[in-house]
Design goal:
Blueprint: E1 2-10, E2 16-25, E3 30-35, H1 41-48, E4 56-61, E5 64-65, H2 74-78, E6 81-85, H3 96-106, H4 111-124, H5 140-152, E7 158-162, H6 170-185, E8 189-193, H7 197-201, E9 206-211, E10 214-215
Parallel strand pairs: 3-8, 3-9, 6-7, 7-8
Antiparallel strand pairs: 1-2, 1-4, 4-5, 9-10
Helix pairs in contact: 3-4, 3-5, 4-5
Bound molecules: adenosine-5'-triphosphate (ATP).
Main location: membrane
GO molecular function: ATP binding; ATP hydrolysis activity; transmembrane transporter activity
InterPro entries: AAA+_ATPase, ABC_transporter-like_ATP-bd, ABC_transporter-like_CS, ABC_transpr_LolD-like, Cell_div_FtsE, P-loop_NTPase
């Protein structure tokens, strides 16, 4: 599902964030991405989401070679990827419902379908009763759940998360990880960058460890 073959990423300032990286994630797999600060974790996720492009090498996602993908196809490609961030990136002047609806509005869904899918996503993350709230009225863990609902509302086959529990206490972090597991159990490929060694050492998933832009031994 996710295939990196000798991938290099050099930023315009000449910093090489990824150096000859090769790895493979199976369809339906759940895995963690770890490594020191600056190791290249966010860069790797950005290459999968086509927020950045590789300098050399092949990134192949669901049999599509991203290096060959023209710009006009990128928005359509991105519907396949759900993205969850540490700071949730919610719009604070919009309700929970509106935040989760955003990807569906962008992809031009009709009103009824939006209502149905948003409520289904909020139900999955346990926030159905809070759809009219503003994000500010929610706890940190609930805000992260809104971010997850927004990421899955398009039913993407791949879910990427960049430090999704970075701001949460251990109990809430565990709950968020359980949510990711539930999506994985219904077939979603889940890839989570995390520093939280305590949490991920208790979970039975593969770890891909980066060190200075390469796979650590
Ligand atoms: N847009 C950019 N321009 C130049 N250098 C960048 C850019 N983005 C990241 N870098 C550099 O690339 C390296 C890898 O960054 P990246 O954010 O991928 O690391 P990370 O493993 O996610 O780190 P952290 O755990 O601190 O978030 C770092 O040295 C960083 O400074």
């Amino acid at each position: 599902m996710i295939n990196f073959n000798q991938v290099y990423k050099r930023y315009p300032n000449q910093h090489e964030a990824l150096s000859g990286l090769s790895f493979h994630l199976e369809r339906g797999e759940m895995a963690f991405l770890t490594g020191h600060s600056g190791a290249g974790k966010s860069t790797l996720l950005k290459l999968i989401a086509l927020i950045e492009r590789s300098t050399h090498g092949q990134v192949i996602i669901n049999n599509q070679n991203l290096g060959r993908m023209p710009r006009w196809k990128v928005p359509y490609y991105r519907r396949m990827i759900g993205l969850v961030f540490q700071d949730h990136n919610l719009l604070h002047d919009r309700t929970v419902f509106d935040n989760v609806a955003l990807p569906l509005i962008i992809s031009g869904e009709n009103h009824r379908e939006i209502g149905r899918r948003v409520r289904a996503a909020l139900d999955k993350v346990g926030l159905l009763g809070k759809e009219r709230n503003l994000p500010i009225a929610l706890s940190g863990g609930e805000q992260q759940r809104v971010g997850i609902a927004r990421a899955v509302v398009n039913r993407p086959p791949i879910l990427l998360a960049d430090e999704p529990t970075g701001n949460l206490d251990p109990e809430l972090s565990q709950e968020i990880m359980q949510l990711f597991e539930q999506f994985n159990q219904v077939g979603v490929t889940v890839f989570i960058a995390s520093h939280d060694h305590d949490l991920i050492s208790r979970m039975p998933y593969r770890r891909i460890v980066l060190q200075n832009g390469r796979l650590a031994e």
